[in-house]
């Protein structure tokens, strides 16, 4: 058997974007390995709707683990459940999403299965039966191709890299009831979730990222960035440079670059950012990069596809206005 | 309370990476190596906890080559009490690294084990939770701050769209990301004192490596971009290009 399992993620009963990408990545790997693709969705009772959606992206069988004990993400219980599914299905490869949850869960599953894990993968191949994965290292300053000599192969994929693709035939949904779930806490108790406010997407997952740097001159000027983000729609998120986070203008959750997040959006708009090497490492795999900076010799212009030289505080409101005009015409 | 902080020697984040001739590693010449920045956050958290409680010790543990002694001395100069170097090569297989560290951690008998969230070289973000799983200890990852009261550590963990608050029963493993505290600089006094602090070196117990780097490459070159224009008047043309040429809007 050379089947592939995609471990997917839901929040409030809705599939997360990276889950569709994970199934698509698993389909590609399944084709190379000559096996079927299954998906595993864990969560509270009442999420079967999300599981039935997985078939549309290529999961021939979706394992649905609905249980009160799985309502919140509890690292130990989830790791036990996933490990059990992997063992009982005899999978050759397992694909996780490299989200906050996936990055927490996949290493635990790897340790339980006693196999290595390649994190934050941007590509893969199968050569003579050996799975290789490509992954950024040194914060994206280089890319390593790593080869596995263990089975099953565990990967977590970087969000926004694998484009989710629909396929026509829907798959089946099957109940999965992990036997090893323990109602004990295993020393870990989830207390609460504090939303950071706003409906905006996380910077690592958004398809458009608007990032402000020192050139924004002060935290009070973020209103104009927020306005541009709104104009760009619900797929856009705000990012911040390290200088801005260190100055306390913005929270660390928004930081792009080394010691922050690495992003790969469709469109990256860098506003008032000079382009320190650590920042460039965190965003250089974006599909299209726009930079606005008053200094024409700023390093950010070396990676930008399109640049405007000038005062961000004059240019950003105009950009928001033009984007709205464009969208109104759609 | 005894705390162990696991640290790694990695290139300074300012460093430009040049590939080595072997095709699987970087050229170390001219590269400044230092403590991985996430490990500095972990060490700072450990030192602050020890200072606020007024008891216990902070020990450092690292898997690395001989030069990792310099990095451990750097941590001792910041205020750690002692250090253990497991001489070996932390490669691409995070599980192999976790096994080596876990074997030593079992002997060190700490109430709290801290890691940086990830090493600033391989960026795998996996060794901490793997070691915790091997040791059967509760673990929280990507924690920006935590408090210890009695036998419980309350952790704030960064997730998409907010913060998750979770409690761990000690002994436990926490991996740290950037929080509100800045890692301290070593004082001259600290640097002098570090020279006399215990640094134990031993051979790492081998663990089989089953994930190997086959090739290391530079990121794909970006095609040369262009300056669309100057000032707000260039915005109309920019938006047109984003729509028609880049198809990004």
Explain what the structure shows.
The complex is a heterodimer of chains A (330) and B (249). Chain A has 330 residues and is α/β, with parallel strands linked by helices. Helix content of chain A is 29%, strand content 28%. Chain A has two domains: 4-175, Rossmann fold (3-Layer(aba) Sandwich); 208-328, 3-Layer(aba) Sandwich (Rossmann fold). Chain A has helices at residues 17-33, 48-54, 75-89, 100-113, 222-232, 242-246, 277-283, 300-303, 312-328, and strands at residues 4-8, 10-11, 14-15, 37-43, 61-66, 93-97, 117-121, 123-127, 130-137, 142-148, 153-157, 172-175, 188-195, 208-212, 236-240, 267-271, 288-293, 306-309. In chain A, the strands form four sheets. In chain A, strands 7-11-6-1-4-5-12 form a seven-stranded parallel sheet, with helices on both faces. Chain A is globular. The relative contact order of chain A is 0.12. The model of chain A has no long low-confidence stretch (mean pLDDT 94). Chain B is of the alpha/beta class and 249 residues long. Helix content of chain B is 28%, strand content 31%. Chain B has helices at residues 37-53, 68-78, 94-108, 127-135, 188-194, 235-244, and strands spanning 3-6, 9-11, 33-35, 58-64, 82-87, 112-116, 139-149, 152-159, 162-169, 172-176, 199-203, 211-217, 226-230. In chain B, strands 9-8-7-10-6-1-4-5-11 form a nine-stranded mixed sheet, with helices on both faces. In chain B, strands 2-3 form a two-stranded antiparallel ribbon. In chain B, strand 4, helix 2 (68-78) and strand 5 (82-87) form a beta-alpha-beta unit. In chain B, helix 2 packs across helix 5. Chains A and B meet through helix 3, helix 4, strand 7, strand 9 and strand 10 of A and helix 3, helix 4, strand 7, strand 8 and strand 9 of B.
């Amino acid at each position: 058997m050379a089947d592939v399992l995609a471990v997917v993620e839901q929040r409030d009963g809705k599939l997360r974007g990276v889950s569709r990408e994970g199934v698509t990545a698993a389909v590609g790997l399944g084709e190379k390995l000559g096996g079927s693709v299954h998906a595993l969705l864990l969560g509270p009772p009442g999420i079967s709707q999300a599981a039935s959606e997985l078939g549309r992206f290529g999961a021939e069988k979706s394992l649905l683990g609905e249980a009160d004990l799985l309502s919140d993400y509890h690292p130990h219980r989830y790791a036990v459940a996933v490990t059990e599914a992997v063992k009982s299905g005899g999978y050759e490869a397992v694909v996780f999403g490299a989200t906050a949850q996936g990055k927490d869960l996949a290493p635990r599953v790897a340790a339980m299965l006693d196999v290595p894990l390649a994190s934050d993968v941007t590509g893969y191949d199968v050569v003579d039966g050996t799975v290789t994965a490509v992954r950024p290292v040194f914060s994206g300053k280089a890319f390593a191709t790593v080869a596995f000599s263990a089975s099953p192969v565990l990967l977590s994929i970087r969000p926004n890299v694998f484009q989710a693709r629909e396929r026509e035939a829907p798959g089946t949904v099957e109940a999965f009831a992990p036997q090893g779930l323990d109602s004990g806490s295993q020393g870990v108790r989830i207390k609460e979730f504090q939303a950071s406010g706003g409906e905006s997407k996380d910077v690592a997952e958004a398809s458009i990222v608007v990032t402000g740097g020192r050139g924004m001159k002060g935290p009070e000027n973020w209103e104009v960035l927020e306005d541009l983000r709104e104009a760009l729609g619900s797929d856009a998120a705000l990012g911040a440079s390290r200088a801005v986070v260190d100055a306390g203008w913005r929270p660390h959750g928004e930081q792009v670059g080394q010691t922050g997040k690495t992003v790969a959006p469709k469109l990256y708009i860098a506003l008032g950012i000079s382009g320190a090497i650590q920042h460039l490492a965190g965003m250089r795999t974006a599909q299209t990069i726009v930079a606005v900076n008053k200094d024409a010799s700023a390093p950010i212009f070396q990676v930008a596809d399109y640049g405007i030289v000038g005062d961000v505080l004059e240019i950003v409101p105009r950009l928001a206005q033009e984007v709205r005009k464009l969208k109104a015409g759609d | 309370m005894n705390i162990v902080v696991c640290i790694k020697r990695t290139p300074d984040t300012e460093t430009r990476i040049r590939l080595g001739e072997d095709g699987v590693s970087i050229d170390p010449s001219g590269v400044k190596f230092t403590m991985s920045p996430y490990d500095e956050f972990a060490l700072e958290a450990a030192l602050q906890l020890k200072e606020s409680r007024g008891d216990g010790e902070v020990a450092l543990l690292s898997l690395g080559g001989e030069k990792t002694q310099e990095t451990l001395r750097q941590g001792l100069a910041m205020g750690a009490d002692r250090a253990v170097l497991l001489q070996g090569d932390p490669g691409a297989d995070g599980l192999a690294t976790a096994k080596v560290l876990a074997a030593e951690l079992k002997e060190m008998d700490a109430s709290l084990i801290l890691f940086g969230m990830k090493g600033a070289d391989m960026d795998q973000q996996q060794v901490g939770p793997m070691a915790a799983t091997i040791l059967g200890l509760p673990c929280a990852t990507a924690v920006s701050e935590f408090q210890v009261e009695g036998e419980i550590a309350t952790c704030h963990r960064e997730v998409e769209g907010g913060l998750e608050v979770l409690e761990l029963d000690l002994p436990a493993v926490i991996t740290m990301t950037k929080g509100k505290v800045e890692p301290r600089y070593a004082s001259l006094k600290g640097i002098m004192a570090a020279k006399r602090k215990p640094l134990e070196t031993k051979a790492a117990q081998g663990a089989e490596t089953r994930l190997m780097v086959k090739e290391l490459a530079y990121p794909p070159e970006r095609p040369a971009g262009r300056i669309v224009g100057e000032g707000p008047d260039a915005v109309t043309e920019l938006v047109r290009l984003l729509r028609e040429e880049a198809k990004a809007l």
